[in-house]
Amino acid sequence: MSDPAIVLGVIGADCHSVGNKIMDVFFSGEGFRVVNLGVMVSQLEFVDAAIETDAAAILVSSLYGHGEIDCQGLRDLCIEKGLDRIILYAGGNLVVGKTPGAEVEEKFRAMGFDRVFRPDVDLKEAAALLRSDIEARRAEAS
Amino acid sequence: MKKVVSIDIGSTWTKGALFALDGPAGPAVLAKRDTPTTQDGLGRGFLAVLTSLLGLPPETRLGDLPRDIPVYFSSSAKGGLAIAAVGLVPDLTLQLAKLTAMSAGGKVVRSFSFSLTEDDIAVLESAPPDMILLSGGTDGGNTAYLFENAARLAASKLQVPVIFAGNRAAASRVARILEKKDVVVTENIMPEIGQMNPEPARDKIRGLFLDRIVAGRGLGEIVEVLGSRPKPTPLGVFELVAAIPRVQPDWDDLCVIDMGGATTDVYSNTESYLETDTVVLKGLREPRNKRTVEGDLGLRVSARTLWDAGREIILEGLDKAGLPAEAMEGFIAAIAADAGLLPTGEPQKTLDRILAEACVFLAVSRHTGGWREAFTPQGRVFVQTGKDLRRVKAVVGSGGYLSRSADAAVMRGALNRLARPAEERKLAPERPAFYADAAGLFPLAGNLAEDYPEEATALALASLKPLE
């Protein structure tokens, strides 16, 4: 099996580019085929790139507090476009203010995200989870 | 003295020139000839022009032509090389497939994204294009759509060549699926998201143009005897526009508008996107050298579709000139009755000018990208899609109407209109100088651009007429 492709980007009207670049370098180093769409990425751009590259996962970042609105409907769009099995992760400062992490996670899981990460996540840990999720999805499919 | 002949077989005229490449004052035009194109056998008109240029009797046979003067030639192939483009996602591989087809000198007659349906195949079967460009998927990316589309094409009645320029990982299986068809496999036009690789597919399109299309139209023998390979006419111009800034850096940031009776082509050679903190590019980063061709925009054969597409602008022009809409209706009807119509007096000349300005406006507008304002918590940014032509320094008008221009009014008027404030700010040339390809030399010099870029550039630039 070839290295899995993953699509990265910062969603919405969000221009925070530093973390996005760090993730690009890190996940490439971990053996993923990284398709990095950069900042200000729309839902449709994530989905289009995932279709062309046959990506296993979309990792959505949001740093400016409007993540909840920006991410709504992404799972539905994936299904509409035929990406039934794609893994969706979200991470960053997903909502404004001091909403407890568990509450945020619950919200995003309800929106169809498989995992939700806080800003201080250990990327090594995230990569390990991603690998096992991809393997599990592949095992289900075969 | 090193001499070469260049001939362009257009849909109406076959035009040729004899060039001296190393004249005392640099490359020079020694002779020019033209004759009506002989549609029932392109070779006859071609030979008439060639023998006349060389000062030989018109009955000279192909085999008796002198061999020391190379002959370059191009053909517009029955009004354009018709290509159907198939891609996966509309904004990604399909968009690039269309750009690739156009930059190879083709005209995109149909385009399809995702799965080809039975209806799509029926449409293709009822009016087969000259070839199909099948793309989709980045390398190592999606294969499912490609296999599905290849199978649909394999099961169809279509006999036209298929160029496969999609996901490398799917190539050998696609070739097997299409083994009963005429299939050519080449490199992926989009190996990675946002990365463009149009050249290999472009070469294959040109090869097919030569082997399967031109050869069948009375040119096969000429190709064999003269040993020169024709190009689609727009490919020659594309190569010339690519060569000029390499040879003459002062002529960097160049745009050529070729407005004909049936189609309008726009060529640009300028960096498509300047990265800054306040401008974010979305979609494809378009190539530095770009050609677009508009099959519905032209002054004669396409006058009716131009009137439809540009009604608002044309009505505004009529209003300014104090002419009623019926005047334009009448003019369009007169053109429909005689596609060779030349305006004789007023108001026809004004009507022609109004059409020309609308045509330039629409063709440049479709070629050019834009900015939309977006407000973010970090401040205002511009979201750019398409190509930025603001830095273009020279705009050259080519083709019948624009090459005969006495002034820059039509082109300047169209660009000024593009600069008007709108929701999307069009990134059209801001302060260009205008020129006319007054001698009609661009297609002829274009034929030489691949082998003699310096000479072709010198000939093309020397022939330009500055417009005020």
What does the model show?
The complex is a heterodimer of chains A (142) and B (468). Chain A is an alpha/beta fold and 142 residues long. In chain A, 45% of the residues lie in helices and 18% in strands. Chain A has one domain (5-141): Cobalamin-binding domain (Rossmann fold). A 5-stranded parallel β-sheet of chain A has the order 2-1-3-4-5, sandwiched between helices. In chain A, helix 1 (18-29) links the parallel strand 1 (5-10) and strand 2. The two termini of chain A are 13 Å apart. The mean pLDDT of chain A is 92. In chain B, helix 8 (233-247) crosses helix 15, helix 10 packs antiparallel against helix 12 (348-367) and helix 12 (348-367) crosses helix 14. The two termini of chain B are 36 Å apart. The mean pLDDT of chain B is 92. Chain A binds chain B through residues 2, 5, 13-16, 33, 35, 37-40, 42, 45, 48-49, 51-55, 64-65, and chain B through 88-89, 91-93, 136-138, 140-143, 190, 192-193, 280, 282, 374-378, 381, 383.
